[in-house]
Design goal:
This protein is α/β, with parallel strands linked by helices. α8 packs antiparallel against α9 and α12 crosses α13. The longest helix has 23 residues.
Length: about 325
């Protein structure tokens, strides 16, 4: 039997319209959900009148009564419209979509079709949406931001720790006293606020270059600016950087393919800094030259990228050290 009679409205309804009750013989409440809502509302209004205040008129939430499959359809709709899966931040304060709490309440806090749904990615999987590896996506975006800066600026330093020991910005433009940080979106968090405060101590302005924009409010601070991918693409067009524009536009589909490019890009930057050292000091560098030297990559970074310090020198076209010299 798939129907049940509600004792309050005396209407036969499908069992899906009744909340669960483990103590009942059929495992369901005796009142349907609609009657339960009305009954609970009336109790609240009576209590409010007794306590001397008036409740606001009841307004049913826009997405409160839609089915689980309709909720999943909204996720599919967002993905189709934005060429990427939605994050929880995308749905906050967004009148066109159910908020993330609605999904948690319907899929995680309650079992969905006797399945254990544990997190947001699992909900996206139910909707048939391919999950994005956001760490790899961020690394790919950081790489494309660095390449864009190399187009726009003459002087730049990547991963510079000379401003503050408490943070290492992605990019510093010394001539403009500007810090650029690559971020997937304009969400606000403690790390970003800390980085901004550290930059302001030394009178640096901050720009967060974001891959996409969410409805969540970012940090609202003077000397802080959010720059989004479409603005970067517009600037790159004036430089004729067609290939770089295509990489930004295809980042969601190709971010996992950029690993070798990222390593090659990093090696190219390290090569440039090693050659810069030779031209500045008129000698080849030694490992101790890069200890606590914020203007150059550390020996650890060089060895991580190339396998050894000599391999880094060889890549930059600098004479390497003999084994005996290295052991001195």
């Amino acid at each position: 039997m798939t129907t049940k009679n509600c004792r309050r409205c005396d209407t036969v309804k499908d069992k899906s319209n009744f909340n669960k009750n483990k103590t009942a013989h059929d495992g369901l409440q005796k009142y349907c959900r609609e009657c339960t809502r009305k009954f609970n509302r009336q109790n609240k209004e009576r209590k409010a009148a007794r306590d001397g205040y008036t409740m606001k008129p009841y307004q049913e939430q826009k997405f409160a009564r839609i089915s689980e499959e309709e909720l999943l359809d909204y996720l599919r709709k967002f993905t189709a419209e934005n060429d990427r899966p939605p994050t929880t931040e995308d749905l906050e304060n967004n009148p066109d979509y159910p908020c993330s709490y609605t999904y948690y309440r319907r899929f995680i806090y309650k079992q969905y079709k006797d399945k254990r749904v544990e997190n947001w990615n699992a909900i996206l999987t139910l909707a048939g949406i391919e999950i994005v590896d956001y760490f790899s996506l961020w690394r790919a975006w950081e790489y494309l931001v660095e390449r864009s800066v190399q187009v726009f600026e003459i002087d730049y330093i990547f991963q510079y720790s000379g401003i503050s020991e408490e943070s290492r910005p992605d990019i510093v433009i010394p001539s403009k006293k500007l810090i650029i940080d690559a971020a997937t979106s304009n969400y606000a968090d403690k790390r970003k606020m800390k980085q901004f405060n550290n930059a302001r101590k030394f009178d640096y302005a901050v720009e967060f270059w974001c891959l996409y924009k969410t409805t969540a409010n970012g940090l609202n601070q003077e000397n802080l600016k959010y720059v989004f991918a479409d603005e970067i693409i517009e600037r790159l067009q004036t430089y004729g950087e067609t290939e770089l524009i295509q990489k930004i536009e295809q980042i969601y589909q190709r971010h996992l393919d950029y690993q070798q490019e990222i390593l090659f890009h990093k090696k190219g930057y390290y090569k440039m800094k090693l050659i810069e050292f030779v031209e500045k000091f008129n000698r080849k560098p030694m490992t101790r030259d890069f200890i606590n030297n914020n203007d150059y990559p550390s020996t650890t970074s060089l060895c991580s990228a190339f396998g050894s310090f000599n391999a880094a020198l060889e890549y930059a076209g600098i004479n390497t050290y003999s084994r005996e010299h290295m052991n001195e």
